[in-house]
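Researcher: Here's a chain I'd like modeled. Treat it as a single chain, no partners, no ligands.
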Amino acid sequence: STEVGHVKGSLTWWPSDIRHERGFPRVKTYAIVPSKTDELARATCRQLTGQGIEQVYILDNGLEDPDWFDQHGIYLVPMHDAGIHEMWNRGIDLAIADADQRRNVNLLILNDDLEFDGTFARRMVDALRSDGDLVAVSGNYDGREGPQVIDVDDICAGRYDGTGGFAGFAF
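Model: Modeled as a single isolated chain. Structure tokens:
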């Protein structure tokens, strides 16, 4: 846990300095959201505004008003009749292709029926980056059943969270 610096002449370069000042690509966070409901997809996009997301990818499985997304800088990917795994994989491929290097990419994969606060994306990224052994973290929710919007409250970083394990609606 000891941070080691590299002495160059009269300066000491710490790992954070090297990462930011010596050409390491900055970490980018992408949101991947499969949807077939315009209202839910738009609501999710509005919630992601101001959360440091490089690009939002809406995987379109039957949206009726694609122009709204284009007007708001949202990358819409037509995927009619695709399965959820196919939509996730296409979004991941697009994000990785856009990023400078694979290790500097955070992928936020969300259902379109979530309600979260303005710090949600940052908390997910911080949880993921808190341990180099983690490959994914999950959002917790309040345990409600039914078709209503899921209120995402907390983040689970590699632990059993009491909701039945890893939650597929936000990771």
